[in-house]
Amino acid sequence: RRVLFRSLMERQSKSNNIILFNLPEKNNHKDLENIKNILSDLNENILNFTFSRLEKIISTTPDKPCLVKIHFTNQSDVFTILHIQKKLKSLTKWSNIRFSSDRTIN
To answer: Model confidence over 41-69: pLDDT tens digits?
Structure first.
């Protein structure tokens, strides 16, 4: 029972998170600007979020950028972005960018 409850609590805590893939690594200020630009290009005016780069895991492609975890204040923002992210493929600047729900381990 406790394991199930813990699992449900963990899933709920991640429900406002989204993972961003392939955002080039520059610096924290540039990351913020890029995330805002991506959201704007998706025609989403989402201003309330926090983000952090996740630690890089050992990979066969060492030049691949670290993932970015974005936390939104509204769970509906996560659903909206996941639903409309396909628009990014048509934008040359963001064609490699994609989002996923947060399935990270803590």
So the answer is: 999 889 899 999 987 666 666 678 889 99
Sheet strands side by side (includes 98-101): 49-53, 68-72, 17-21, 98-101
3-state secondary structure of 7: helix
Q: How far apart are CA 47 and CA 6, in angstroms?
A: 31
Contact indicator for 97, 21 with CB cutoff of 8 Å = yes
**Given this model, what pLDDT does residue 41 score?**
93
Q: Which amino acid is at 95?
A: S
12: which 2 tokens? 């709920």
Block residue for tokens 């290009």: 41
Report for 1-5, 8-12, 18-22: range of highest mean pLDDT: 18-22
Whether 25 and 62 have beta carbons less than 8 Å apart is answered as no
